[in-house]
Specification:
CATH architecture: Roll
CATH topology: Structural Genomics Hypothetical 15.5 Kd Protein In mrcA-pckA Intergenic Region, Chain A
Strand order of the largest sheet: 3-2-5-6-7
Number of helices: 5
Shape: elongated
Largest sheet: 5 strands, antiparallel
CATH superfamily: RNA-binding S4 domain
Radius of gyration: 20 Å
């Protein structure tokens, strides 16, 4: 038996995805790379491997610290990986930008008027 765990199981156990099927879909869709190479769901991950995960607008660069096949509490899941400092800085910068961004409909209150709807239609074209 090999010294690894399937990447989809590990991502689910590390709580990057809510279900294992979502983790499998992300790996199949090319959203996960192991050591810079695109992975398949059955690819084994070992301690020391570098994993890049993209889920929505989040992007993580991780180093695998431990293995787990079963999902446990969040405190245990955090021990399975360490995030690179560059990844932490990039995620913090993106969070700050989201926080400071003005919501497009912030000045609109209630139901849009006919004029507001036409303005929105112009923006969507």
């Amino acid at each position: 038996m090999s010294e690894g765990v399937r990447i989809d199981k590990w991502l689910w156990a590390a709580r990057f995805f809510k279900t294992r099927s979502l983790a499998t879909d992300a790996v199949d869709g090319g959203k996960v790379q192991i050591n810079g190479l695109r992975a398949k769901p059955a690819k084994d991950v070992k301690p020391g491997d570098r994993v890049e995960v993209v889920a929505g607008d989040q992007h993580w660069e991780l180093v695998v610290a431990a293995l787990a096949e079963k999902r446990g509490p969040a405190t245990e899941a955090r021990k399975l990986y360490s995030e690179t400092p560059a990844s932490q800085a990039a995620r913090q910068k993106a969070a700050d930008e989201r926080r400071l961004r003005v919501e497009p409909a912030a000045d609109m209150h209630g139901r849009p008027t006919k004029r507001d709807r036409r303005t929105l239609d112009r923006w969507q074209r």
